[in-house]
Every structure is written in structure tokens, then in C-alpha cells.
Amino acid sequence: AWLRILRFQVRDGCLQKRAYYDRISGRWSLLRMSTTHFNLSNLSSQASQFVAMSKFPICCAIAPTAELNYNYEGNGNDDSFLVFVDDVSRVYGVEDEDPNVDTDSTSAPFAEKSAYECWLMLKDMLEKNDANCFSDDIFAVLDERSLEDGTLLLVEEPEEEDGGEASSVRAMFEMCETQMLLWVAGKNTVYEANERVKQTEDGVLRPGMDIGDS
């Protein structure tokens, strides 16, 4: 996910982004954004710095499956920014080094919830246990359609009025991390993403469509 962002966003260099998650305000804040050159062999350590701060939750509206786990592993990303949330009573910490897909789980606590309701549940988890290290303003939802076409519903700061519909966009699984990182970096918004998917027949954001205008 980092490689795609670094290559597309900056001319003659790489985008080095550092951020922290403020639990009081419940928002991401950028510490520094600059263009620098660095050896691609250091890419893993750069990603690890971000993972050590927080992750993007995937709200399970269906139980994770073995097929889902296989599809994720096929992306070849060892430094994941994602964490599957299938248990609202569990603590999801920064020490988790993989998306933690429990293929034996039958739990789907976000089933039949709107994007806004998912957001409320994530905020409740953070308020009840400050050891949870994930963003609640930017997240994804794993639902029935995910099994049909390999997509996730991505959400950014949902509004109560429409249940979060205007603040969400459906995207292919393999580029979800890229899209959410672009949102964190301020290089794109969910509204821009929705404008892009209007040009598609199925309303799905695909790799190459997620790049913010420079």
C-alpha cells in the first residue's frame, strides 16, 4: 500500500508521512508531510512506523471466511494497516502484526448496521478501553457484497442524517489501504472517490482511480 502511494503522489521523490491518532479528539493528525528520496529497501520500516501508531478497522457485518483470508494474503503486504474487528469486547492493540482474520469466528457484530451505526460502535469501543488502537473516523465494512465481488465499503466521518451513505464508497479489497491512507494524508476525500465511481457501471473504486489530484 505504501509503495503505491509514494510513487503516485510525488514527482521526483517519495511522500514521507507521519501521523498520530488523538484519542481525545478522535481524529488523525499529521506530524509532517514532505517529499524525500529513500531506498525502497527501507519501505517496510517506514510502514511499520505508521502501524505502530494505529490501524484501520474492518467492521465485520459478516463472519470472516477462509476465502477472505486467502484473498488478503494474496496481496503480499506483510505490514498491514488493517485489523478485522469481529468482537466488540476484544482489545485490538498496536502489537497486532496482521489483520487477525479468525476464520473460525462466527461473530458479525456489525451485521445490518449502517455506516453511522458502525462508527458509533467503534467510538464506544475506544471509550470503553483506551488500549484499542484503531481509527474510528476512517474504517471499512465487510459485508455480504464482499463475498460476491471482493469489495469493502470504505467510510470517512459518517453523518447521522443519511446513515453515512454520502460518506462511504465501495472499493476493491486490494486497494483499500491505499485509499484510506490517501484520506489520512489529505490527498483525497470520500466525496472525490464517489465522483470517480459515478463513471463506473457497478459503483466500485478500483486501483488507479484512488489517486488524488496533484
How would you characterize the largest beta sheet? 6 strands, mixed
Question: Can you give the helix content as a percent range?
Answer: 25-40%
Report the span from N to C terminus: 18 Å
Radius of gyration over alpha carbons?
A: 16 Å
Number of helices: 7
Q: For the largest sheet, list the strands in their spatial order.
A: 4-3-5-6-7-8
- Proportion of strand residues: 15-25%
Number of strands: 8
Write the layout of secondary structure elements.
Layout: H1 2-9, E1 14-22, E2 27-36, H2 43-51, E3 56-60, H3 66-73, E4 82-85, H4 115-128, E5 138-142, H5 144-149, E6 151-156, E7 168-172, H6 176-184, H7 190-197, E8 204-205
Parallel strand pairs: 3-4, 3-5, 7-8
Antiparallel strand pairs: 1-2, 5-6, 6-7
Architecture overview:
It is a single chain. With 214 residues, this protein is α/β, with parallel strands linked by helices. It has one domain (55-205). The chain is built from seven helices and eight strands; from the N terminus they run αββαβαβαβαββααβ. It has helices at 2-9, 43-51, 66-73, 115-128, 144-149, 176-184, 190-197, and strands at 14-22, 27-36, 56-60, 82-85, 138-142, 151-156, 168-172, 204-205. The chain has a six-stranded mixed β-sheet, with helices on both faces. Strand 1 and strand 2 form a beta hairpin.
